Amino acid sequence: MKEQAAKQEKRKDKSLFLSIILVFCILGTIVYTVSQKISQEMSSSAIQNLSESLDLIQCTIEAILRNEAEFQTLIAQEIARTEDPEEYICVYERNQTIVRMSFILSGKTEGLSNTGEPFTEEGLDFSAGGTVNGLPVSQSYLNYMGTWAYTIKCPVEREGKEIGTLYIEYVYDTIDRSLPRDGFYNKQASLYIMDAESERFVLKPKGMGMRSAGHLNLDDFYRANNIQDPAIREEVAACLEEGRNILFYHDVRDVQALNYMWPINDGTIFMVGYVPVEAIQQEGRTVNQNIVIVVVTMLSAFFLCILLYYLNWRQQDKVRREREEERRVHSQQLAEALQAAQVASESKTTFLSNMSHDIRTPMNAVLGFTTLLNRDAEDPAKVREYTGKIMASGQHLLSLINDILDVSKIESGKVVLNYEEFSLSSAAAAVCAIIQPMAEAKGQTFQAEVTGVRNDCLVGDETRINQVLINLLSNAMKYTPEGGHIWLRITGLKQRSGQYEHIRIEVEDDGYGMTPEYLKIIFDAFTRAENSTTNKVQGTGLGMAITKSIVELMGGSIEVFSQVDQGSLFRVDIELRIAEQQTKAPQPVSAPETGEEYSLEGLRFLVAEDNEINAEILQELLGMEGASCEIAADGRLAVERFRRSEPGEFDAVLMDVQMPVMNGHDAARAIRELEREKGGRIPIIAMTANAFAEDEKAALDAGMDAHVAKPLDVRLLKRVIRKHIERRDAR
Fold it and tell me: Shortest CA distance to 119 belongs to which of 168, 170, 65, 68?
């Protein structure tokens, strides 16, 4: 019996053992099958995800190229409408996208660039760069700054006839800025931009994950990553030749990776890089770990294996959802980058359209009346009429340029307030002296008053305050018909502090008024009221935007109230610090008395000016004031003439800045060095079209005494000359 029981127990143990082995085999088969299937699905998903990411980046880069081509076509159309295309190129300022703009007239081999240098097509190869929107693109090259770039050329046609070719140089860094900054695949992906013809790497984007500064070309990439398989190299060469994409697995630095080459712009450039398989198959690694755990824990219990499989399935589902969310966010980032590029292109088009209209209108008047002036030169009455209208159009054009400069300064944060003591009543009187005759000429009634101001001597930027007043009053005059009324009220409000004067400025009119819709956008740049009454009023649409920015820069606020056909009221509240000493009580608002104007009679000037027309104008203006001058065509000649001059021969030097041979800054420094030998100090006044604050600072740093912007205001020039000659004589 014992032997039978023992045999029966052995049979049970054997059956249990066989059952366990069978269960283990079934579970092992199931686990192995499931793991392989998951690995295959994840591998396919990884390749699909990578392909979609590369397709989106490809679309973004090609959209940037198309936008650049569309923008260049617009520029070419604008050049075709100008009388002097080369002058247009010379004055065009570069931006973050455009490195150099050049133009070659038809029939010539050399042209001009906006950098001031001559330009030829020599060295540019348009045979391998393909086209964008039908425009030829050059092969990639290193420009003079050592940056990889490419050039797009566009024909310039006028009335169906080609008059020249426009060349614009772009840098690949623009593409880098448009790509997502966070990269993809957890910043483990490596991506380069390669020129297909030369096989040189022209861009290693900062935002696309890992970078390797040692990769200069495809051969270098092969060598660094130990890609020696002839079959792979032949396949890559075929892809380059045919302009198609390729994906292949190859170890990179002993790490298994998925390599790729993706064509852009019909295969003229390629995206080259790799992604570690570990980065795109993290799920697979997790599965393998779970398989080991399952195999080890199978000996413990069958239900534990089922539980582990269930937990693994849930983990897999979670990871898959996370990957889908990551792909969605990545796609959204690329779509936003593409939309931003399109918005930037539309903004450029809108800006060019606005500027073309606003500049052409007064320029047409200048050219038209100049033609009439040539025809009727013998009629003094018409000469006076035409010159007056030319002057008015020129002033309008100058106002437009000044407004654009102000907007540029404000947006770039380069506007700095100049806090000085000033008289509020005197400032108001000076503004009234400008506005009063303008209002009378239009048949308008202008009234101004200052009430309730306890302290007249304040600390602030008088120039900017005057600019706010003139902008508001000029706007009121524009939109008030003949016979209308305009009021300026400056009121002192309750002081919040004993150190500050709370001022309220109100400008009111009974003119056309504004609609509620326009009131919402009145302080936006390039916005003007458009209706049958106001659409004939000239304006840039920048005045109110500038006014609001200046007021807010001074810590104040501005608001507007208006009704159609009832007029408008602009209200500015601002606090100004009270000066330590009040020299006088507030004075009533009136035009300041003008004494005898300073005379230049008998003064002699040394003028450095390379432009013959500008030199002639200045010579005539000084002659009208009883002064004489000697012209030097560049800075070097001016220095040599000063070297030969006797002490006191010249009363001042009027110095242009941008000149050939030697610029104005270097010439000023050379003159200051010569003064050590001659003794004394001669006033040097800069005269330049560069009107930014940094230009004035550069002139002063070079040793000049003052900065006067072109076009010249004779009265301003006389005041500056008087100030510095008197300062010289007082030494």
Answer: 168
